[in-house]
Write a sequence for this structure.
């Protein structure tokens, strides 16, 4: 729909000059300007012709027929003429139409077809290499078209997207794209404001839509700026809630200035606490195991830092509950490295660090190394030895019950039984057995050697008897029955 007015409006500072130039067409390019002028001059009453304000409002009835480029022109006009605090009906209507098209499932196909006759026609003259590299992605094709918004309006844009149930993952990607674009020409103060606004907007999105990689990128940016502690806390909480999706590389953040230790362990403490504070209803065993594995990898990295004090290391060790780990082998390895590097620790400090170890979740090899490891406290080594011995007793007891249950076995089963017995003996040798068990093992080995010697001697005797002539045997007569029956 095309409407006309009898005025051309020029805005120069606070003065508005009305010049009669006949009939001027109201278009998407000037409707915002004319609307602002009509409001400023209070041109609301209709005369012989409809008032300018009513005409501009009526022109918006055809907004659904505007092209994409016309909508963007109108949005730019709104930003230039309206303050962020001014709730303009025309701005809300134009922005709502833009977001509605982006949320429509047919927009992407319309965009890629670039049809001249379509009401959803999108101008490609503003496309940069970003969209070209992404092959006109159906998700991000519009990102650069909306990067012109200033930081005062981007908050309203994102919240309107959320009201229209826009995909949160797409919103988060757009915010990161927006941050990178605006930083190119922003001052230090503007960068702080942009970062804080983006963090606050990210906190409104669904947690599962946030990428750990992009969150840590924002964190690195925020660390170089003086943003508020509140915003920094919000960002760390967002990262903590997604900690089960991150990798060890992201956690190895260098320590702050004037700190001797290598990595920022305080940050990891805060992130894990944020993860654990999410609530037991949301922490599945699988998520806990992922974070436990991540934390064990982190402990192995920081354990070699000679400047990391025992209290900080112990705090990280005891962050997660015992149920988070199915095995404590990797935790034991990290403790072993730390005690090797920090050889001057007192017994109490060592005990506090090792208090998180669950001996029942240590493998037999780990128990054996722990029992013989002089770096660990003696009480820890004794406890490891007791658990080591208990595992062996349980194994032998199980073998005993198996023998009782089996009863008489066939020849083939006997062979299998002998193989299983040999495996148990070999398995038992790996333990540091008491003296009585070692003596028994030595006796068994001696008996096995003796049996082997007798078998060899028996083979020799069989060969010699086979070589004796039969006539010689028959000449012995009844005395033949006195021949030894070693190998009969």
């Amino acid at each position: 729909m095309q409407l006309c007015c009898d005025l051309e409006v020029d805005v120069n500072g606070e003065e508005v000059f009305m010049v009669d130039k006949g009939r001027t067409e109201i278009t998407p390019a000037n409707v915002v300007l004319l609307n602002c002028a009509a409001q400023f001059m209070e041109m609301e009453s209709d005369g012989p012709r409809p008032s300018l304000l009513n005409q501009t409002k009526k022109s918006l009835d055809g907004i659904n027929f505007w092209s994409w480029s016309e909508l963007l022109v109108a949005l730019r006009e709104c930003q230039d003429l309206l303050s962020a605090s001014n709730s303009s009906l025309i701005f809300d209507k134009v922005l709502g139409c833009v977001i509605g098209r982006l949320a429509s499932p047919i927009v992407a196909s319309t965009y890629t077809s670039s049809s001249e006759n379509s009401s959803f026609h999108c101008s490609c003259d503003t496309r940069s290499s970003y969209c070209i590299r992404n092959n006109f992605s159906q998700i991000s094709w519009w990102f650069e078209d909306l990067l012109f918004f200033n930081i005062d309006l981007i908050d309203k844009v994102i919240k309107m997207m959320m009201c229209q149930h826009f995909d949160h993952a797409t919103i988060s990607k757009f915010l990161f794209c927006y941050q990178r674009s605006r930083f190119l020409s922003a001052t230090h103060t503007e960068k702080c404001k942009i970062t804080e606004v983006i963090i606050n907007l990210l906190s409104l999105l669904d947690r599962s839509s946030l990428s750990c990689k992009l969150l840590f990128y924002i964190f690195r940016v925020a660390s170089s700026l003086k943003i508020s502690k509140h915003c920094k806390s919000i960002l760390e909480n967002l990262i903590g809630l997604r900690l089960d999706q991150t990798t060890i590389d992201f956690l190895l953040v260098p320590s702050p200035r004037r700190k001797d230790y290598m990595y920022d362990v305080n940050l990891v403490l805060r992130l894990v606490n944020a993860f654990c504070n999410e609530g037991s209803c949301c922490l599945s065993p699988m998520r806990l195991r992922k974070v436990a594995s991540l934390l064990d990898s982190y402990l192995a990295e920081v354990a070699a830092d000679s400047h990391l004090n025992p209290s900080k290391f112990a705090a990280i060790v005891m962050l997660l509950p015992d149920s988070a780990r199915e095995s404590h082998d990797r935790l034991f390895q990290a403790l072993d490295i730390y005690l090797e590097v920090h050889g001057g620790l007192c017994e109490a400090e060592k005990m506090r660090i090792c208090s998180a170890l669950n001996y029942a979740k240590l493998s037999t090899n780990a128990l054996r190394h722990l029992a013989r490891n002089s770096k660990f406290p003696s009480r820890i080594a004794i406890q490891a030895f007791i658990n080591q011995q208990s595992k062996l007793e349980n194994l032998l007891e199980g073998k005993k019950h198996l023998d009782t249950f089996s009863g008489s076995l066939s020849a083939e089963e006997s062979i299998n039984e002998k193989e299983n017995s040999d495996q148990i003996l070999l398995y038992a040798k790996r333990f540091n057995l008491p003296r009585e068990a070692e003596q028994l093992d030595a006796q068994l080995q001696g008996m096995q050697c003796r049996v082997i010697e007798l078998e060899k001697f028996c083979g020799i005797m069989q060969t010699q008897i086979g070589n004796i002539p039969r006539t010689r045997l028959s000449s012995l007569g009844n005395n033949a029955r006195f021949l030894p029956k070693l190998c009969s």
User: Anything to note?
Assistant: The beta strands are 3-5, 8-12, 15-19, 24-26.
